[in-house]
Design goal:
By secondary structure, the protein is α+β, with helices and mostly antiparallel strands. The protein is built from 16 helices and 27 strands. Helix 3 links the parallel strand 6 and strand 7.
Length: about 525
């Protein structure tokens, strides 16, 4: 099995029974803030795009590059489609000209012509990607590969049970806006960033240890930031709180925990994977490339400056009444929302900075009141500050997912009172009836489900499944004193009270081993 690195989470997998192109991303994403690094725009995409199969793991724009898919990937390719709860991915791919689809049943092995086998695991929580994320398992003549990319399954058992894996490709770096955009003292921002960076690596080590593959390939990150206004987010400034470590840092950190089987794929690197080992060739020496990272970034910044400026010029739409547009888009969804609106529980404020860089229009999305209105000097739990032009553009293109556009762009600042609230971001990625109804149904189902099984962790008896996204705490749960941490997403709980210390709206059922059994789960979680 040959694996060609094509940048970020993208790769081309070649076997004698067919080729699969995965997640090709070349063009800037999220309001021209994210670019693939190392640069992959100079690869021979005319050849790389001539494949038998296309796999897109999910709709995040650093995986689903519509322009590149339209222009450079053969429409004769059969799309390996995850079993997602909505039809959005298929609809978007059909609009780009793809017509052949293999809808893979979730977690079921499918044998393709020539003996090539694949299995796709689809994750379908509203917090998984933009309503869905997935991983791809591939086998040919006894060689097995798992492309986990960004996905965060609760465990990898379903893949391990299919046989020993020889190549494990997974995310290790940040892909979020936290904590960089929050209005915090720099010392606090650095501390929170270091915590997140450490959790990212801890989660990666856990997945690697679960699968025990012969070779580990760090992929799906980090992006680079070439706009002068975002340049500080690149991990080149010696900031221990930067959440975007690169592949060379991965190898260094992996070595500290005993990892010796890491392989970096630069764009153009080729790994020949067999049951006996892997041989890899690179377009340039990996160590030399990352030793000159700053110079590569500076060269990219100058080369892409015109691309960024052209994108910026397209954002302004002064003819749009933003308040009226937000009311028209959001208020009908507020009327439909039960769980998300209750979960947000208060008004959310948007401060929109005008073209002059000074004037500000403040608009409130009032979740309890089910309306969008001008700010009335009330206390708000969440506040976002961004350029008016960005929201104008979102309304102009009828964007249904403000997380997969505005928030991932990092072109905003945020402040909040109290804990992180997942429902705020869940709502703003569901600005369509289809998405909102799915998310409401998912939360309804999980609110009603009671996980009665308990496990013992140290001196505590706790429910087996994390209240957040049902991770198995027997594997991901760590107890330190009176606190429980779920390492899958870093959520923390105060065990004596059951209260979540990371977000609102979640409690864990717990009691000390030597204490009386607490109230039934349904009462404990109410």
């Amino acid at each position: 099995m040959r694996v060609t690195g094509t940048g970020h989470a993208s790769m081309r997998i070649d076997t004698a029974a067919g080729s699969i192109l995965c997640d090709p991303w070349v063009n800037p994403a999220y309001f021209a803030s994210w670019f693939p690094f190392p640069d992959n725009s100079l690869l021979d995409w005319a050849s790389l795009g001539q494949v038998d199969y296309l796999y897109v793991s999910h709709l995040h724009r650093d995986h689903f590059d519509a322009k590149h898919l339209r222009d450079h990937v053969s429409k004769d390719a059969t799309v390996l489609l995850p079993e997602f709860p909505t039809s959005e991915m298929e609809d978007e791919l059909r609009a780009l000209g793809f017509a052949k689809f293999l809808k893979a049943p979730n977690e079921q092995v499918v044998e393709l012509p020539g003996g090539l086998k694949i299995m796709i695991q689809a994750l379908t929580s509203p917090t998984d990607g933009p309503i869905g994320d997935s991983s791809l398992w591939v086998e040919y003549e006894g060689v097995r590969l798992l492309n986990q990319n960004d996905a965060r399954p609760t465990d990898l058992t379903v893949f391990a049970e299919l046989g020993h894996v020889h190549a494990h490709l997974l995310q290790f770096s940040g892909a979020i806006w936290y904590p960089m955009v929050y209005e915090l003292p720099q010392a606090a921002k650095t501390a929170f960033g270091k915590q997140k960076r450490d959790r990212q690596f801890d989660r990666t080590w856990r997945y690697i240890d679960d699968l025990k593959a012969d070779h580990v390939f760090p992929i799906a990150g980090p992006p680079c930031f070439l706009d002068d206004a975002l340049w500080q987010f690149n991990d080149i400034h010696g900031d221990e709180g930067n959440i975007f470590p690169d592949q060379s840092v991965f190898l260094s950190e992996y070595a500290k925990v005993g990892g010796t089987n890491g392989i970096v794929l630069l764009p153009g690197s080729v790994a020949e994977v067999t049951t006996e080992g892997a041989t890899t060739t690179h377009p340039v020496p990996v160590e030399e490339f990352f030793a000159n990272k700053v110079a590569h970034l500076e060269e990219m910044r100058e080369r892409k400056r015109g691309v960024i400026e052209a994108e910026k010029a397209s954002w302004r739409h002064p003819e749009i009444d933003v308040l009226a547009g937000m009311k028209s888009r959001i208020e009908p969804l507020l009327d439909e929302s039960i769980y998300l609106a209750k979960g947000v529980g208060g008004p959310v404020r948007f401060d929109l900075v005008g073209y002059d860089g000074d004037s500000v229009e403040s608009i409130v999305v009032d979740f309890p009141g089910k309306e969008v209105r001008p700010y009335a000097d009330e206390k708000v739990r969440y506040r976002f500050r961004t350029e008016r032009a960005l929201v104008e553009h979102l309304l102009h293109i009828d964007e249904v997912d403000w997380v997969n556009s505005l928030f991932l762009s990092c072109r905003f600042s945020a402040a909040r009172i109290g804990q992180y609230n997942e429902f705020v971001y869940a709502f703003f990625k569901c600005l369509s009836t289809e998405r909102l109804q799915y998310a409401e149904g998912w939360y309804d189902e999980h609110e009603r489900a009671v996980d009665a099984e308990d496990i013992t962790l140290g001196d505590w008896v706790v429910q087996r499944r994390c209240p957040h996204l049902k991770a198995d705490l027997s594997r991901f749960g760590i107890v330190d004193g009176d606190q429980l941490t779920c390492q899958l997403h870093g959520w923390r709980f105060d065990l004596p009270s059951g209260r979540c210390l990371t977000s609102v709206g979640h409690k864990v059922r717990a009691h000390r081993v030597d204490a009386e059994t607490p109230a039934p789960a349904g009462e404990a979680l109410s």
